[in-house]
Please model this.
Amino acid sequence: MAIEQSSESRRSLILPPRPDVDLANKLDTPVYANPRLSMPFAVRLFGATAGASIIGLALGTSYGSQGAALRFRAENAHRLPRSTKGWYLYHKSKNYHVLLGGAKEGMKMAGKLGFLVGSFFVVEESVDRARGGSKDAGASLVAGLTVAGGFSAWSKSPRMFTVDTIIRFFVVFPGTKTKTSPDHLPLAGAAKNAKMGMVAGLAVGVLQDLRSLMRGQKVSYIETAKRLAGRRLFADTTT
Model:
């Protein structure tokens, strides 16, 4: 018996650990246990990014085609055709511009929306892992605020981090006015983006928490509220 145990111990020292066993032990940790939406992060990220890109492609194509049609009509309003052949070429050229404008705007919107949604899930997962595997609406709220702030700083029209903006908020005394270019994002616009990101992130997080509760999983803030309520009830009964 002792010989068999010694041989097994020598084998465990010589042979490397099995990859499937290491993976199973890794998946049992709180960080990887009970993933959001019951899907691994890679699958969740790919599905969300692909779905957002498809929606952005559809919306951008519709918006871009309508804008291209109106632009073509405005640019050619002074030279409308007067023959059947001229109208045929007019509509043919218009359809080409509509198709091209819709494709450009669709690809642009698909990239933007896919990037924003993918960034949201990446930040959400990063917050979950930084908290040691605690998954609740708090991480979704932080992700929504982070993505909204990043969008406000990155978008072409709202430019927040400029020399004029820094001077206005950190150097110029309150009540004074400085010149701002039309592409600067006012403070109200940044606050609106932050509010929208917070509401969207909180809504996504609450829906995920409700799904976790329906599947019998624990949510951290609900467990904390239960513990606090139990302590208060215990204190009332003892007094």
Summary: The two ends are 60 Å apart (CA to CA). DSSP finds eight helices and no strands in the chain.
